């Protein structure tokens, strides 16, 4: 029987592993980080300062454990234009993941106020689609720390299903490179061990995947984007916004999105006003940043272009207007530094991989945000899962 190795257990890797295991394939899923309790996922952040602060985690389930549970389709039309139609995959995974907007009972006063005032100023506002089970969710503001009630879809669910179908999971093992002999793929290696396979799928993320590819002689790591964002906020006494479901609404501009968002960084900045967490309200401004970064062996370089800065300023001005209309004292408005949560583009379709997500080395595939041809400027989980599901079904039929 052919052996498959999947490197990384986030949205892409877990999905491919599950699809292959369902078909009875011999699957081994290898994860750099540990198998941790979902509620403890915040302990495994591996943030890095790369010009903007880059947020990511390493554990079984990856960054899906600390997402806000947002379920928006991204890059669908662009991918369709290059021959990748994900419509049926989106439809099926949205049912599986329980994608829907949350009921009114799960909208706190801060989010409701932001939505109301944004609409009164003429901005397009809607509820954010979520893969959160409202029946078990009790709003607590901890989505991005690791849901204490496991009410949010995470790729751990797919990992567990893959195991039920016979897949093997190896954690705490960082894969360093691909094993190639006589020009053919033979498996992967960590620092002290080799794992043989007939087919390998890299899902180590927008930073990890290109590093493995480069060490294996495949040019990757250019055109890095991170979906740059800032959070603008200020003081609105006793709103208790910090306990609400984060990013529960979406405000769409032409090239910027805004969403209600509490950040502890704002709390630190506003302490001079002698306020508590419950007195702070904020809006995230997220852009599709230009691919101005590069992933190197021992560093990552990323800078914000003049266009990126202009878009962030535009979004911040709108956020300030909405928050002021909501009653925030404008003299307290402040912003976090620029950060990034969705690194990708570093093994892009049409540059490093083909439409089947295969590299120039036969039987070596990629399934994570590194394959995106451009920054989505919005949460990418749903699209990563759709691409990985498509790949898993392709591999299941081909091998």
Automatic annotation (TrEMBL):
Q: What family does the Swiss-Prot or TrEMBL record give for this protein?
A: Belongs to the GMC oxidoreductase family.
Molecular function, one GO term? oxidoreductase activity, acting on CH-OH group of donors
Please state the span of the N-terminal signal peptide per the UniProt entry. none
SUPFAM superfamilies, per database record: FAD/NAD(P)-binding domain
Please give one Pfam family short name. Answer: GMC_oxred_N
Q: Which residues form the 4Fe-4S ferredoxin-type domain?
A: 128-157
Q: Which organism is it from?
A: Methanobacterium spitsbergense
Task: Name the UniProt key words of this record, in alphabetical order.
Answer: FAD, Flavoprotein, Oxidoreductase
* Name of protein: GMC family oxidoreductase
């Amino acid at each position: 029987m052919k052996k498959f190795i999947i490197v990384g257990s986030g949205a892409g890797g877990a999905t491919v592993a599950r699809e292959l295991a369902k078909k009875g394939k011999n699957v081994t899923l290898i994860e750099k980080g540990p198998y941790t309790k979902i509620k403890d996922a915040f302990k495994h952040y591996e943030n890095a300062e790369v010009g903007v602060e880059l947020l990511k985690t390493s554990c079984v389930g990856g960054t899906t454990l600390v997402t806000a549970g947002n379920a928006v389709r991204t890059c669908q039309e662009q991918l369709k234009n290059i021959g990748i139609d994900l419509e049926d995959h989106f439809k099926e995974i949205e049912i599986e993941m329980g994608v829907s907007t949350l009921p009114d009972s799960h909208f706190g006063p801060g989010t409701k106020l932001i939505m109301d005032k944004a609409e009164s100023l003429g901005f397009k506002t809607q509820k954010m689609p979520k893969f959160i089970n409202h029946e078990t969710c009790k709003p607590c503001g901890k989505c991005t720390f690791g849901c204490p009630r496991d009410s949010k879809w995470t790729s751990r669910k797919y990992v567990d299903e893959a195991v039920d179908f016979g897949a093997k999971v190896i954690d705490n093992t960082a894969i360093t490179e691909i094993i190639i002999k006589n020009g053919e793929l033979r498996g992967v290696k960590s620092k002290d061990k080799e794992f043989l396979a007939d087919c390998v799928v890299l899902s180590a993320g927008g930073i990890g995947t290109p590093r493995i590819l480069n060490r294996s002689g495949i040019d990757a790591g250019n055109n890095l984007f991170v979906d740059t964002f800032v959070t603008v906020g200020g003081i609105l006494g006793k709103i208790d916004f910090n306990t609400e479901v984060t990013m529960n609404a979406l405000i769409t501009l032409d090239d910027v999105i805004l969403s209600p968002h509490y950040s502890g960084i704002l709390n630190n900045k506003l302490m001079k006003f002698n306020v508590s967490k419950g007195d702070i309200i904020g809006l995230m401004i997220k852009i599709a940043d230009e691919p101005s970064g590069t992933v190197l062996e021992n560093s990552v370089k990323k800078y914000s272009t003049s266009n990126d800065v202009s878009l962030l300023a535009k979004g911040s001005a709108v956020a300030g207007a909405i928050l002021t209309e909501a009653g925030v004292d404008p003299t307290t408005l402040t912003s976090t530094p620029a950060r990034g949560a969705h690194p990708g583009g570093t093994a892009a379709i049409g540059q490093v991989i083909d439409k089947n997500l295969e590299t120039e080395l036969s039987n070596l595939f990629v399934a994570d945000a590194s394959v995106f041809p451009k920054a989505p400027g919005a949460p990418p989980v749903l699209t990563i899962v759709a691409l990985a599901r498509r790949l898993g079904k392709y591999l299941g039929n081909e091998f």
